[in-house]
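Support reply, case 0932

Customer input (verbatim):
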Amino acid sequence: MATSYVPLLTNHFGQFNQTKAADLYPDTDFDGLNVLERLWVSWYVWIGNPVIATGLMSFLLHEVVYFGRCIPWMIIDRIPYFRQWKLQPEKVPTKAQMWKCTKAVLFSHFTIELPQIWGFHPLAEYFGLATHQVPFPSWKLMAIQIAMFFVFEDMFHYFAHRALHYGPLYKHIHKMHHEYAAPFGLAAEYAHPLEVLILGTGTIGGPLLYCLARPDLHIFTVYVWVTLRLFQAVDAHSGYDFPWSLQHIIPFWSGADHHDFHHMAFVNNYSTSFRWWDHMLGTDNKYRAYKKRVAAARPEERVALEKKELEKVEREGLKAERLAERGAGKGGMEGVPKGKLE
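Our regenerated output:
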């Protein structure tokens, strides 16, 4: 079995097994590949087993992106200058809380996500998803596919999330995620392993369903989608609303302001990426009423009024949480006609 160094990516991954290359990439013109595609080929050939290569890359990608995106928010939380944009400035996460979240997230990743990831390659190929193959799809096709995944995940998450707010599902599963009324980046995946499994289905379910309809999806596209989804989840839990935050550019984007209210009020704002479902089904009425009252206040009174409103929201949220744990109430919508402002 002959081995030599690859002309594509010399010294990137050590020795390149030409027999494996011929097996995985018959009739492939390596000279026609871009740098990223050559890296992709080198990874799969270096590992030698596509199942292991895909599983390992999937797990490493998730860990690096998730914790890598959390680090900037951890730094920002330690710098007082940024408190002017913090939605709940008096509630800064402590080091103990961050470490608690980190341990819980790692436990969830290793007990729930790691087994899923190792079984993903055969399942993906069964559904028709390309994994080790090159070249990659066009950026235009990838953009369309990722947009579809965002829409599907947002719909799935909305209804699954609302279900997790009722009775035993909340008490035994979702309550863990609501431990912090003022969320922070690391708390994005601070959740019961079963919740990670349930809501994660919306993230990976879109690509798998897409494969049933069309055979042109590549796992590289899925990786881009998962990266963007992780950025969205961490940013939504960051607790900061900057003037340049995406919700001020895209009006229907959810963002931290939208999701922070959910953690305070316990109800309202169940969506992840977009505000559509909450608006259509009336589950943003408390949020819109609060925003309307604050906007109507005189500038000199606005800060004090907003603080008073948020304190009221949090008190009502605690009451709604207690009702949900007992399987009682109307999900915190008592006294509020559906779709109407208070």
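We compared this against your earlier run and they match. Two observations from our side: The beta strands are 3-4, 16-17. The first strand starts at residue 3 and ends at 4. Please reopen the case if you see a mismatch on your end.
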